[in-house]
Target: Sugar phosphate isomerase/epimerase
Amino acid sequence: MRDFSADTSALALNTATLGHNVDGQGAGWSPEQVIDACAARGFGGLVFWRREIGDRAVEIGERVRAAGMTVAGLCRAPFLAGPLVCGDDAAIMAEFRAAIDMAAALGAPVLTLVSGGVEPGSKGTRDSRMRLADRIARAADHAAGCGVALALEPLHPVYGGDRTCVMTVAEALDLCDAVAVPNLGIAVDVYHCWWDSTLPQVLADRARGRILGYHLCDWRADTRDVLLDRGMMGDGVADLKALRRAVEAAGYAGPCEVEVFSAADWWRRPPGEVLDTVVERFRTLC
Amino acid sequence: MRDFSADTSALALNTATLGHNVDGQGAGWSPEQVIDACAARGFGGLVFWRREIGDRAVEIGERVRAAGMTVAGLCRAPFLAGPLVCGDDAAIMAEFRAAIDMAAALGAPVLTLVSGGVEPGSKGTRDSRMRLADRIARAADHAAGCGVALALEPLHPVYGGDRTCVMTVAEALDLCDAVAVPNLGIAVDVYHCWWDSTLPQVLADRARGRILGYHLCDWRADTRDVLLDRGMMGDGVADLKALRRAVEAAGYAGPCEVEVFSAADWWRRPPGEVLDTVVERFRTLC
Model:
């Protein structure tokens, strides 16, 4: 087993951890500043959000690789079902394809998918998951042609009304089974999955070769806001070592992507301090 | 099958739906006023909270039965694990026994248990569930002697840090299996369980004879506060008819207990209007 106490090559930064540079949060760093700061600290990769890339995907991807890192992924496809979709079916699919194209231009091997919530007018999640499966199936060939894998991320059940209709890894794997294309897998996020006591068994039984991302943060026992109060690793109750053992036991050997949405705490700190903390916590706790 | 469109005998009110008479919410109705208002509307039962009963348990229980209804249950035992427990082990067990005694004095056949969250200093939920199982096991004989069954209620994973270490019906049944006493079962609450796509199968496979309560409300798609923004039946995305079919297919024939915590909406309305709405929604949607 690798000695993770010294090795940060598996560590990737999801740029949301630095506050998205929106609403006065974060330091307003450019992608180039983030790249340099992560390279200096030994990060192995970066995951960007589409809003940060604009029309500079090729340039930014090359900049990351020139700094000795990889673009580990891109966040994210648009909501594919539920009340928060971005328009009619044609608009949703066009934005989905645009996200795939951006991932390809960046050189990101993985695009993260979040499902979106319950379709207006329906009850429960079944109809919404059928709609979701249909839209993924219709984009999967285009993604394959671009060399992009799609990572469906189950979200915490608290988002079950508006943001997700896929709440567990088991449900995400069910959906992968239903769509049945080789470039669709799952992302396992500590925040969304830490509570699921069946997770190690589900991963061992069903996830081999299908885990496309592992996202690190923590669940604060006194979570004050379910969207923007995630904990840094160690600040909460998730069993981080057990979760990593479970994803790696299922064959995952990709990056550990730190993604902390924290409007009241980490987003208010200097980015350099946040990155130093990420490295230290990763080395000692993850 | 009963004609539920006319029959409200299965309908029980959890008094929390009227605002608990605390913090300026609700109408400040006495237990007697609640009893009369529910009897007049054809409710079959009532579920009280301990704070409303004080030392009047026998008197209030008799008053409910004189009005032609049953005391369907009592909320609730103290947190049995995690950061919100009420003191040391002796204090927790004393309060647990006091809650059992109050249920017996009321003539309530069921006491609701919520587990409490993650034990301070531990990670994940395993240690906390062992602590919980131990405390339930140590109180179960006393409850049996009082004729009181214990209904362990899995809570929504959003409460996983501080209020629960049992997030799903399957986990609650696992814990019942571990404790293995005849007077321990589960409560199924729409708010906590609506999102779980495995629920019908889990209930069919494992819950026969073990469902001691079914709690009605709804999950609002735009839930604004995870503690006090529950929806009235019909205001959200839960598939209420499918959930009731699932609990009844597993043999449950007890009351449907309406429990709506709604500080910003229903608790601000006149209690008579709330009760009328409960009856109408139950008849048409549940």
Notes: The first helix of chain B runs from residue 31 to 40. Chain B touches chain A through 34 residues (CB under 8 Å). Residues 11-285 of chain B form a domain with the TIM Barrel fold (CATH 3.20.20.150). The CA atoms of residues 104 and 145 of chain B lie 10 Å apart.
